[in-house]
Amino acid sequence: MGTRLTAAGLWSHWPRWPVTLSAVGVVVAGGAAAVAQWPHAWWWLLVLTAAAAAALPPAAGVLTQGLQRRQEVARTARAGLQQTTGADGGALPAVRDADLQSRVHRAVLAVPYIHRDAETAVAGYLRAGRPVLLIGPSMVGKTRLAAQVIATEFASWPVAIPDSKTALTDLDAKDVTLRQTVIWLDDLDRLLGAGGITDGTLRRLAADNVIIGTIRAAAYERFLPADPLKPPEWDVLSIFEHVFISRELSPGEQQQLVAAVTDPKIRDRISAVGLGEYVGAAEQVAEVLKLGAAGVDRIGYALVLGAADWRRCGLARPVPRPLLPALAAPHLDPASPDTLTNQDAFTVGLAWATRDINPSVSLLRPAGSEGYTVYDYALDLISRQTAPVPESTWALVIAEAGPLELIDIGMAAFVTYQRADTAAEAWHRAVSSGQTDAVPLGTLDLGYLREQAGDAVAAEAAYREAAASKHRDVVPRALLNLANLLNKQGDVDGSEKAFEQAMAAGNADVAAAAARALGLARRARGDLDGAEDAFQQAIASRHVDEAPTALVNLAALREARGDFPGAADACRQAIKTGHSDMGPRAWFNLGVALDRQGDLKGAIAAYRAAGDSRHAEAAPVALVNLGNLLANVADLPGAAAAYREAAAYEHAEPVPNALLGLGNVLLSAGDLGGAEAAYRHAAASGDPSVRPKALVNLGHVLLRGKDPAGAETAYRQAMATGDAGALAGARAGLAKLGKPAG
Fold this sequence. Notes:
Rossmann fold, 36 helices, three-stranded mixed beta sheet, 11 strands, mainly alpha
C-alpha cells in the first residue's frame, strides 16, 4: 500500500480503526452499563479496559509505523527532488513559496515582465489536465512563462522539479506517488533517454498532476521522427501539448512593451534581438564566443567547441573532465603553439571557458562530479554555425557511450547530420552490447537503415527480429515498419497481418497509425469497405494526429465513392479537432464535397477558410478552386483576388493554374497587359498541363494587342508541346494570322 504526496502534504492509507474502535467501545460500553445500572458494571468496565489494552499497543504500533513511513516517504521525495526550492521540511513547497524565478536566466537589464499571448493557451491546457511543453530557442522566455502561469493558476499546489533523469522513476520504485502536484520538467531533454522519463511514467503522472515542461527548439528538433524512424524520446514528447514560443512579439505584446519601456532605443533593441536575449546574458555570450573565435583564448574556445560537439552528437550527460582535451583537439591548429598537453595552458583555457559572464552564466559550467556542460544559449549559437562535428569526435563519443546512449548518438548522426555509416556503427555497437533495451532498439533502427539503403530482405529480417524481442516499446513499432515494408513489396496478406498485430501490440500511438496505414493499403487495392473500417478504428482512437488524418482520408474515400454528404460529415469532424495540418486540408475537401452537391455558397466559404489558414499545401489549391467558382459566377474581381493570393505561394504546385486562371479573368475583364503577364508567368512555370494552354492564350492576347509576331511565336511554342488541345487552338490562331501550321 503506497503513500501519495498531495496538495495538503502526505496522504496515508495506514489503518486507524483499531485505536478508534477500542476507545469508543470502552466509553460507550461503560456508559451504557452505568446508565442501565447493570449488575457488576465495574466488571464490564474491567473486561473492556483489558480488551482495549490488548488492542491498543498493536494499533499504536501500526500508527507509529505509518507515521514513520510518512516521514520516510517525505524524505525520499525531497531527496529525489532536490532542485525543488522552498521551505525546508518533509512536504514539497507550494508554488507560491518556491523560488521558481531562480530557474530563469538572470536578467542583466531590468525590463518589466511582458505577458506572452501563449499564456492563455498554456493555462487552458493545464487546467484541462493536459501536459504542456513549451518549445523555443534558448533565452526566449520559456522558463519565465512557465513560472508565471503556474504561479497564477496553481499557487497553492506543491511543486516538484526533478533534478535528474531518474528522479521520478526512483520515486515510482520506492512506492511514492505524486498527486495533485505541479511537476515542472524544465529543460526536458536532460530528463530523457536511458533511465529517464518514459511515456508510461508520464501518462500515469498526468492522470493526477499538472505537468509543464520546457525544451530548446534545437533539442526538440533532434527528437523529431524521421518517418518511420522514431527516437524513443518522441513517445514522451508526443504526450504533451506543444506550444511554440517565438522571439518575435505579437502586436499585443508589442503594445505591452511600449507601455512598459519608455525608451524607444531600448524598444528597438528588444525588437531586433528578442526580449529574452535583451534582458538576459545572450549578447554577452555571443560577444565572448566572438572573442574566442578571434583568438583571445584559443584553448578555452576549443574546450567550449568540444563540449558543444559532445552535446551535438546526442549525449546529454556532462562531459567528463578527462575527455575535454580530446574533444577540443580537432578545433586547434596542430601547428599552433597552443597545446593541450601543457597542463598550465589547459588550466588557463578552462578558466577562460568557465569564467562568469554574469553571476549565473558561463560558457562551460561545472556539473556533477568532474564534469562540464556547455551553456545552452552558447550551444544554440555554435550549432547555428553548421560546422560539421569532427570525425574524431564521433569516434570518441561512440567509444565512450553506454548502450542506450549509442541509440541517441545514432539518431543524431542519421537524422541531424545524415551520417548513415556513423549511425550504423553506433547501432551495431548497441546491439553487440547485449543490453536488454539497447539490443531491440538498435535492431529496429538498423532495419530502417537497411530499408533506406534498398536492402528489403535485410530490413525485413531486422524488423522481424525486433518484433520477436518482446520489448514493450519496440515490438509495436517493429510490426508497423514490417507491415509498411511488406505493403510496399505487394505482400497483401503479410502486410495486413502485420498491421493487425501492430494494432493489437499495446501501444496506442502505434495502433492508431497502423489502423490508418491499413486503411490506405486497403483502399489502394480496392477494398473500400475494409479501408473505411480501418479508418474508423483510427478515428475511434482519438489520437491527436492520426484521428484527424484518418478523418481526412475517410473524406477522400467517400468522395471517391460518390458519398459527398458522408465526405462532408468527415471533413467537419476533422475541422472540429483543430488540427493545424489536417484542419485546413479538411476545409479544402469540404469545399470539394459541397461543390459536388451543388452548395455553391458553402463551397466558397469552405475554400475561403482553407485559404485563410495559410497552409502551405491546402491554401493555394483551395484558392485556385475558389477563383474558379467565383469566375463561374462572374465575380471577376473576387476571382482575380483569389488567384493572386494563390500565386503568392510562388513555388506551390497549384501556382501555374492560379496564373492561368488569373490570365483568363483579366482577359475577360479587358486587361490585356495583366493577362499577358499572367500567361507568360504560367508558361514559364514549365507545368506540362498548364504551359500549352498558357501559350495558346498568350497568343490570343498578343493577337488582340496587335503583336502578330509575338502571337505567332506563342502559337508555335504551344504546338511544340505536343498537347492535342493546344494544337487545335494554336492552328486556329495561326490561321487568323494567315500563317501555315506546318
